Amino acid sequence: MSTDDASQRLATAREQIARAARLADRKPESVTLIAVSKTHDAEAIRPLLAAGQRVFGENRVQEAEAKWPALRAEYPDVRLHLVGQLQSNKADDAVALFDAIHSLDRPSLIPALAKAMERSGRRPECFIQVNIGDEPQKGGCPVDALPELLAEARAAGLPIAGLMCVPPLELEPAPYFALLAKLARGHGLDGLSMGMSGDYETAVMTGATHVRVGTALFGERA
Ligand SMILES: *Cc1c(COP(=O)(O)O)cnc(C)c1O
Question: If we measure between CA atoms, which residue out of 125, 130, 55 comes closest to residue 95?
């Protein structure tokens, strides 16, 4: 992908976000576009960096550790978001590398993240991932378990920014986005990480503060 292609895709995504935000009477700047670069190598990422994108998402700690330190040396203002499942034994690595973690979804991660933050002095903002469609195979904390998980995370002093979800595939996402927004409001949380390439405009219209967009910016993953 050339820098021109990257600029074009980025401009399109930004326009769609701005349009959806205005329709919902929101400010376009209230939405952070996370370019999800998982599976793409540094050569695929560079054109987006050259086009001005600075916020990126990865779903594996090890893959991100292999790619980003070199790119960050060139672009020190890059911010990295972890959008994939986190193992407790990777908490130190994740806290060292990422500026935000979108996959806090179970109690065992709370002490692991709290210790990692204490050791490193870094405090990446955390989103609690909710299994919003109550799907057995899917990551995320059950809706029923959210109040307790959130209370534990707050008691441990974790910086909780909001909630994250991936709605069920093949179903209309808007009701799930609306439900996540309602849950966040009910718990006094402002951040809403929701919306991917196929549904980020809907997500913005229903309140997303962070959209996680891969394919629409990079093309299909291999
Ligand atoms: C891969 C991924 C995305 C991006 O998906 P696209 O459909 O390529 O935009 C967003 N969120 C999560 C959690 C992902 O794993």
Answer: 125
